[in-house]
Amino acid sequence: MSEATPGGRLEDEQLVDWLRLIRSENIGPRTFRQLINRYGGARQALEALPELVAKTLRGRVIRLVDRDEVLREIAAAHARGVRFIASIDPDYPPLLREIADAPPILAIRGNATVTRRDAVAIVGSRNASAVGLAFAERLARGLSGANYVIVSGLARGIDAVTHRATLMTGTIAVLAGGHARPYPPEHEKLADDIAEHGLVISEMPFDWEPRGRDFPRRNRLIAGVSRATVVVEAARRSGSLITAKFANDQGREVFAVPGSPLDPRAEGANDLLRQGANMCTRAEDVIELLAGASRFSSQKDLFDVSEAAEKIEPLFDEIDFFAAPPVAFVHATKVSGNAFANIEKTDFTGDRRSQTTPSTERDPSGLIISLLGPAPITVNELVRVSGLSAQVVHGVLVELEIVGRVERPGVDLVSLVYNQ
Length: 420
Known about the structure:
Blueprint: H1 12-23, H2 29-39, H3 42-57, H4 67-79, E1 83-86, H5 94-97, E2 105-110, E3 119-123, H6 130-145, E4 149-152, H7 158-165, E5 171-174, H8 188-197, E6 199-202, H9 214-225, E7 228-231, H10 239-249, E8 253-256, H11 267-275, E9 278-279, H12 283-292, H13 364-371, E10 377-378, H14 379-386, H15 390-402, E11 406-410, E12 413-416
């Protein structure tokens, strides 16, 4: 990039121009690069756009972000400790820089030095089982102990437990919205804690409230930052599978944790294993494979996408001003016979019916049932994961055992009965 300073960073006015360009209507990462390459800089591209739009779009006008709007965003971001880095900046995650649709600008908060360490993404169900949460925590700690940075999406369930397990060693949270609007809202404090030793990143405007399409955009960044992605629990209708798809398309390793065939929360992960994903039953599975692997995986065509996708939506409403072949990104596909069948767009929003509510807002019995599955877990682990007192958990388990909802396959083990 010719606009870089000797240190690889943009000057203040160049940053303003870059933000103006990428924030403008119908300008996405690929269009941004087209324009920069054609005109030699963001300011020249902004000056050329009105005439280019008139020629290309036959009189249609697109909105260009004005300078004052960008200056207000920069001021608000700086007041919250957020700074902007370009893809040419040495603090920009190096693996993310190499994906086809890497964001030209990232807004980051926290310790950027974590981007210099290898990263592994851990993703999974928001409505995770206690077994899944316990394994995700153990996996995160094991990988962190091997000096890997853990990456996830700040969501409830698997994401949150992996972030919390690695707060002191550095974790990266990728936001679907802007830094002023972390989702879910109750994880704002978690985002603050992550920024103490790790990093919170977003490609969206500072005050952007996340929408449905922003979650798969976030998922591509989760995969893009990481050398590998591990899916701990994922139903067939799960955004975690899209993260795995992006990882595979980017040439990164994909792992899945096997789960009980009786638990719907394990169906997506089990499907990944059938399609050829690496099995993960311990942190060493990931550590050993990455230690012997090249920087990019040799694994190709993990998912069968030979059939035409029933529905393909681009992640960005980009305009190809120079008649280059269009590139579509899968947002939601329905392809029979593979792990991504029956993925629906509603699963990418954080506020649909599939989204669980915080445990503090749920009755203890409902919370315990949601955490249990066919795989046994110790009562002590259930107490820890649920956040409830031991007295409350034991009381709920007695009630559930009386009505036949749970069984005790061992002295201190409990599991959910599915044959109701």
